[in-house]
Each structure stands twice: as structure tokens, then as C-alpha cells.
Amino acid sequence: MIKKTILAGAVCALFSAASANAALIQLTNVTGAWTATTPGSPAVSGGGTNEIRWGSPANQQNQQSGYRFDGAAPPTVNVSENVNFNLGTFTHFNWPIYEPSLTSAQLTVDTTLLIEGVSETISSVFEFQHLESTNNSNPCANGQSNNSGVNVNGCADRVTFALNVGESETFLIDGVNYYVDISGFFYGGVLANEFWTMEEYNNTASLKGIITSRPVSVPEPTTLALPGLGLPGLGARKRLSKAA
Questions:
Q1: Are residues 129 and 106 in contact, defined by beta-carbon separation less than 8 angstroms?
Q2: In 3-state terms, what secondary structure has residue 48?
Q3: Pick from 17, 119, 181, 239: CA 20 to 30 A from residue 196's CA?
Q4: Model pTM greater than 0.70?
């Protein structure tokens, strides 16, 4: 009974120590590139980079409208399991413009993680649809009145997006499966698939992900205890056999 109690205690301590030692996970690099824009170049400039621009400026600041994605790393960022972490920031530069305007674009985000010293890269593709509103309409395209709320500077534009490829990845490292899920874009702190963006304003949304892990297989404590308890008994039987 004493042996079983001690062995059970040792097994519990072993599993407790394993669970207490969290994996070292680091976000080392995040890049984004805009492709497959409609219309294409030269109406939309910057294809293949992290920023695209379009439209003839209809504002005193002489600004085009645009999309930009800025990755959250480098520098390297430590990541905790089971907690949403920031991958980067999407910005819509919303300025009054004359046509041509963007109607759709594709964003590819490459995320590199260092998990227990092993580097892994995930590619995620987002499909964006863009509605360039008529600024002086009333009501505006979102159904609300002009010159108030999100339409305070003229009718807001609508940005709609969907995660197309690379929603989640699994990596097996040192007997542990790591699940990396790209949650999506958070606007105003809420996960969304579309949002209305204010005119004459840099509207931002955060791309977030989450990592969880699970060991491939964990032996039951009784399975570990049996060999330890069985071997001394086996030796005793052999000694008794020789003495006979």
C-alpha cells in the first residue's frame, strides 16, 4: 500500500510539472500583401505590397483612399496559449474621392511562429469587398441619416471580408499538437466580418489568432504504475524458484 501511494504521488507530481511548464511560443514575423484587386493597376496602385491606393482626391488634403496591413512582428512577441494575440492591424484610409474606386481585393497574411525552437509559417488569405458610398446621400447606404454617427463626415463606406484559406493549422512538435486558429478581424473590440468606416478618418481593425495545444497521447497513471510494481515481484519469484 505504501509503495502504491508513493508511486501514485510521483506520477501526479510528474504530470503537474509537465502542465506547469508552458511551451515557449513566439510570434517572430507577420507580413501582408494585397493582390487580385478590382479594378487592377493603374486604377489601384500598390498591388503586391502591404498598401494599396485608389481614386482621384476630392478633398483638401489631396488624399486617395486606401487599404494597409501592418504586421505585429517583428520585433518578436511572446504568445500565451488560450489567449487571443494580435497578428496585425488593417487600416482603411477613407477619404472623399472621385472614381475609379476599389470594389474587391485579396490580402495574404504570412504568420511565422517559433514554437519550442521550431519555426512554422501559416498563410491566410482574406477576400475583401468594398462599397464606396455616395457621400451626400440621405439616408446613407447603412440606412442611417447623414451627418451623424459613423456618417458624421458624409456617408460611411462598407468593408466586408471573409477568411478564405488557412483558417487553422496544426503542428506536431515534441509529442504535442499545437493548433493555431486565425480568429479574424476585430472592429471596436468585436469579431466582425464587415464594418462601416467613417469618412476623412483612418479606420482600423485588429487581426487576431489563438493557440491551443494537446499532447498526442498521455499514459494512464495505472499503466505507469504496473511495470514498476510488477518487476520486483517478478524478481522475487525467480529467486524462490532457484532456491527450490
A1: no
A2: coil
A3: 181
A4: yes
